[in-house]
Amino acid sequence: MNISILDSLSTEELTRLTSVSYESNAHAVVNVNHPKVQSGYAIIAHILVDQLIVQNKEMLMSEASTGKSGFILACGNTYWSGYDLKRKAPANFPILKPIALATTNIYAGRVAQSVGYTDYISTDSTSCVCAYNATFLAKALLDSGMLDRVLIIAVEDATSGDTIEFFSKYGGNISVADEAVGKLPSAFDDINTGFRVGNGAGLFLLDKKDNGVAQIEQIAMAAERWSSPIGQDPAGTGYIRALAQINTEDVHIIKTHGTGTPSNNIAERVAIESTFDNFVATSYKAAIGHTMGANGAIELDLIVKDLKRGVLSGIKNRTTKDLKFVSQDTIITEKTAICLGSSMGNGYAAMKVSV
Question: In the predicted model, what is the mean pLDDT of residues 243-259?
Fold first, then answer.
């Protein structure tokens, strides 16, 4: 599949979130002080998508002027969290109202209509692999001849109070209290583990053209049987099953899921080391935060940029030198990479992308 348009929103800058149960620094492209959020009639996910649409609308509508165009909103959840009317809002949290457009399938229809991608409209709520699963579906739609192009927008706000509370309780989120004792987010490290949360969005347009900004050569989805729906089999079963469906020969660059949680560090490392003899691997989450449903599209954009510039970004906050799970920016000459993903609910993805 060809990627004709690829764009994303993320940030390395930190915003202090004080009105949450676990005070945290987060990578927030948009925060709760935005006037539209304070009004109670928009949420952060809407504003992120609006920004991406504005940046790319002319090109998107031009592409949709011929043939059949479909749209998939990769949204992580069926309803975006952080707007639960049963919970008392902190004093400086946005006004809580029952926003119909926080129901993702309703919002997907609105976005599709705004850009003319109305020959097929759906959502994907498979948590952190939703952008990959949307790509898997898009391939079937393109291969069948039902559509000429599929627009995928991946977005979620992981900076909501509900999300921070959940991940702080289960040891994923790095809070201000964690930072106070010297802990920082990283991946595949013996000392620094976990992630800061973030919000952001990514957009990519798939079609059957011969040239574009990048190509998705293969996409695979898998699952595993494991005791925890929010953890990983330490044998790396899910990742291995996804990778087994991809031709990994002569590929040595890997964009990991790389949340930095102890369970993912073990499972993903085992899967990679059992599949690849010679590799360099990175994770972007220590730099931009875990953006949940948006991460697959945002990190696709980041790995494509790294492949084009010939430098693989090092994993932030590593405490030891590492030439495989790279602790510093690393020169690369190959133009193909494997992207890995994992989701709550024991879902996994592997995707081969080239530039």
Answer: 97
Provide the CA 324 distance to its chain's centre, in angstroms. Answer: 22
Do residues 137 and 219 lie in contact, with contact meaning Cβ atoms separated by under 8 Å? no
First-last CA distance in the chain: 12
| Strands 347-354 and 336-343, bridge-based pairing | antiparallel
Pair 238, 245: CB distance under 8 Å:
no
**Structure confidence by residue, pLDDT tens digits, 86-123:** 344 555 555 444 455 557 888 999 999 999 999 999 99
Which tokens sit at 58?
């002319």
Domains of the chain as residue ranges with CATH: 2-207 (3.40.47.10), 214-354 (3.40.47.10)
Q: What is the pLDDT of residues 57-85, one digit of tens each?
A: 999 999 999 999 999 999 988 766 554 43
Amino acid found at 4? S
Work out the widest C-alpha separation in the chain, in whole angstroms.
Answer: 57
Residues 6+ apart with CB under 8 A from 143: none
